[in-house]
Amino acid sequence: MESFPDVRILKAQAREQFTILLGNFYGKKDLVIDPSLMTVLDRITGLQFLKEKGVDKVYKLEHKEILGGGNKRVYIVRPSVKAMRHIAAHIHSDRRAEKMRAYKIFMVPRCLHVCESILEQEGVFGPNLIEDLNIGFIPLDQDIISLENPALLNSVFMEGDFTWLHTVAHSIVGLQTTFGTIPNVYGQGHAAKIVESLTNTLTSELGEKKSPLQHQIGHLVVLDRDVDYVTPLCSQVTYEGLLDDIFEIKCGVVDFGPEVTKTEKSVKTMLNSEDSLFSEIRDRHFTNVFPYLSARAKEIQANYDKSHSMELKDLKTFVSSELKGLKQEHRSLTLHIGASEVIMKHKTKGSLRRGDLQDILHIEHSLLEGSDFRECVNYIEECIHRQYDMLLTLRLLCLLSCTTSGLLPKDYNNLKHKFLHSYGFEHMLTFFNLKKAGLLTEAQTGKDTSIESNLNKLADSRTVGSAVSYVTSSLAALQKKDWFRTVSKKLSLIPKPGTEYNLKKPSDMAYVFGGAYTPLTCRLVEQAIQRQGWGGLEDVLRHLPGSNFEKLEARSAKAGKSASSGEQASKVALVYFIGGVTYSEVAALRFLAKQKGYRILIATTAIINGNRMLSSFVETVR
Amino acid sequence: MTSVKRQPAPVSQQAEDEYWGGSSFKRFNFDEDDNNEDSIEKIQFDGSTATPLSQKYESTRNHATSYGHGERSYVADTPLSSTPPNRAMSARSHRPNMPKKQQFPPSPATLPAANHEPVKSNNSQHSMSITEAVAVHDKKPITSATSLAQLETEINSLRRQLTQAKRDRAAAPSVSDTLKRVMVGDPYVLELYKSKDEKAKLLDSAINRHDGNAVVAATLFMRDTLKRDIFSKELMSRPVAVDHYCAYLREAGEIDELHETLSALGRTEEAAMLKYKQCLASTATTTPEIRASGLKDCIKYYFDADIRLANDTSAIFEQISMMERQSAVEDGDSAAEKTGQVMVFKSHPRKESIIHKPVIDTLFYCCYYHWGEAEGLLSSPTSIRNQHKISEKQFMFTAVAALCRMRRWRDIENLLTVPRTLFRSSRLQAVIGFDRVVDVLSKNLAPGDALAKYCAEIETSDKRLEMAVKLKCFKVAIDTFVYQRDRQQLMLYLDQIPQANQHMRQYCSNQLRSQEIKWKN
């Protein structure tokens, strides 16, 4: 569909900016790159590009000296205190060695006050030292764009630090400049609201005029991750989701190890819609992947066989036209069959560190339905007893907490005690972090007479009266009794027990979790686009954390004139996930788009899965 | 235009008057100034003459407000306010006929020698332009009293403007202006917000804008420029600022300040956790003894005070006692290993130290190497189990796995046997269920006969069948089919038994042919 915004332009923009900045620093230079930016830069530039721009050597920014290198050096970093300290240490060591070197620091996406002041304190601040390198969205595919900044989740939803929301807002402003101002905006969540207001402020202050372009995107839905922690906590069962859970997809690239390739080497593969085979299977429920792959394998075999019975003339055309495509498909087919086999192994055979996927799925489904509570708690206990992979255990624990609005104090203390025994006492810090983020909480018992709640009250009254910080207010929001049950009933996220679900021909988005659950976020998106706002959903949104807002296009008489192109745009929606999105949600939204004839562009701060989400809250001191 | 250009006149009025008064060119300077500035400027402003002075001044002033502290000093250096004495001197001695503007350098950057040279050379060569100018001025009539009065008022107004300019230079730009600069990444300066109200306003506006970077900037600025207790008070009344400030402190590693802030806010749990983390991090490479004493201090100062932290406090106590046990066991075992006398360390060499490992890892280790030791010993599994209140199930999982690895089948059997009582003979029983026992054994690579033995004990027949089929315990599977009287399935199962295992195939066929079983199908 030609009206769909072409996001490749975003990559070109980032590249161009990078080119200019590098060009302004004449001559041969070395790069020192923040480890967290490696894959991002890889995605937009590549070594060949850097060489053309006069880059000599590339180093990783670490807490140690870099020996050697030329007399010009460029640091490319996130604006963090740690990175600044490393850079200052490097400069100091050069000074001690009396090495003359020119430095530049490119801050992605912008310089922060603290960075300047650290450099100032360290005595290394200089004119023209810092440049902002505004790398915004990385297009991972034609319908996914990502800021690739997983740290945002922790800083916004645990610390209550809005600094990164500026980047989110800035990216929206950038999109609007390129694709036209988006007329309808709907949002849910604390951070979403802030982003909306920041977007407006930034638009006016950057002097961005209301774009003269006809808008190509009709709707923007902004959602906070903490509106729906449940979805990322579930095991994924779509093909791409499984690949991410088992092999980990980084910036759209997966590294298949020897177990998949069946050779010595591991293979890095881009996963996007350019691989026609992959784009066919990526969003399928896993049970539908293998039959398709084997059918394809037969087809390819047939095509190869065809060549045997060919006349010489036909053979020539076959070799020149079809063979290359066939070979490519063959290669991709081999890889995906290998990957599927590994996934199958995971599914049916647990290991010392992991239970069977089937058992885990069963427990997750019970938790989502709210049935067999004791069985679930017992299973989690067993995970702890058997010292299964910690993130798996933690994921189930958090799912238990999120679906039941916090654990009962008895269970909480019991499970925590056992958890600390199995995984180390230092994880009481992890528990604290998860509590702060609202992922794993202790339910407040109804009885106000208990000593504990009185003590809590006492402590609360001692703190400054109205001073409810973001952190504590988000906790309070999650403690609404049984909110997940209420919401899932009202939005019918969970099918009635006993209904058969046809995974071969899915009829709704729930297929991404084997028909057991429709992702809450995706249902919200569906409703928002369908209803053109939140109207009629008030009693659902009331139960979700954060507040909601909507901004609708003023429907004037003029609207009729541009109806034709506006019509097209009104079918295009941008969905922005603040704090990350999972591949399951992506698959569900693609399904929704196909079903309803929309085009949905997904923007996110990072692609996450349960493990990556939780590991950002895990403390690793030992 | 003229008035601006004459700005220098009032500046060092006193000195000039003195000087000019004593000279024979009494009225000359003013007129000269008026008419002949072009040529003078040519001498003066090497290259950049065209800009009128007023603009220059204006632009430096702008710089000062936007770039702030550093550059403010350079504005002060400009001779607007006072002519540098040495320059006045040199002008006087060398060039008595040189107009005053000479002493008014265009830009501070060009102040030194470079500026003098063209002047000197002009002086020696008596450049045409100046001599001509002097000649022209000599013919001019004496200024009237009215024009003098005019000049007087002009001087006064200029003075006023100057004081105003001086004041402006130090006045802060509006808060919204500064915050806008912060937001879009332009240079800004906060040091000009002197009053407490202005600072507070800055912070509040930053919060209202939701600009995290500006909130941090304003907060840190307040911290640096306000007295401690005033800063705390202002901070505490703004929860959003507190969150950002804490995030900053955490990132910058200002742990003590963070702890103090959290305590002041009554967030004792967070404060205590912070100290606990700091203690662990700082003792990561030290001996367990040092860490233990650190943790004890931690409890004493930060955890004991709050009754809500009772669970965590007892956990840390457990941690300390576990560390003491670990270091004792570790010392004993590594010494024993070194002597080379102890068989078990030879046959099963120790892989890694248990120091700082979780409780269950330690329990596993002790089950592996020290099974059956008396409870009085620190290395005894039973002692760990009792001290840390390890549940029956947990103990089973760990012990079965460890003993299986050690291939101590007899011990596993004992562990899973309920001794004979008055009413019942001894029997096998597992609190975790035999399906779990078999699962643990199979994942620890137990041999077939051990698996079969416990597989047969699995309580429900369905589960038993499932496990038996999965783990290829043929006899158990066949028996279970028989138990379920499921002939059809048993016939199918016969195909799954490999040809090599003739014994089992025979057994299966026998069962199928058996007349004693009442098949259900």
TrEMBL record, chain A:
Keywords for this protein: Protein transport, Transport
Q: Does the keyword Ligase apply?
A: no
Q: Keyword Transport, does the record have it?
A: yes
Can you tell me which residues the record assigns to a coiled coil? none
- What Gene Ontology terms for biological process does this UniProt record contain? protein transport; vesicle-mediated transport
| Entry's family note | Belongs to the STXBP/unc-18/SEC1 family.
| Protein name, entry field | Vacuolar protein sorting-associated protein 33B
| Lineage per the UniProt record | Eukaryota, Metazoa, Chordata, Tunicata, Ascidiacea
UniProtKB/TrEMBL annotation, chain B:
Q: In this protein, which residues make up the domain named Vps16 C-terminal?
A: 383-504
- Biased segments, Polar residues type: 1-14, 46-65
UniProt KW keywords: Cytoplasmic vesicle, Endosome
- Subcellular localization(s) per the UniProt record: Cytoplasmic vesicle; Early endosome; Late endosome
**Predominant location of this chain?**
cytoplasm
GO cellular component annotations, sorted alphabetically? early endosome; late endosome
Q: Which GO terms describe its biological process?
A: intracellular protein transport; vacuolar transport
Q: Which InterPro entries match?
A: Spe-39 (IPR040057), Vps16_C (IPR006925)
Chain positions covered by the region annotation Disordered: 1-124
Protein's name according to its UniProt entry = Spermatogenesis-defective protein 39 homolog
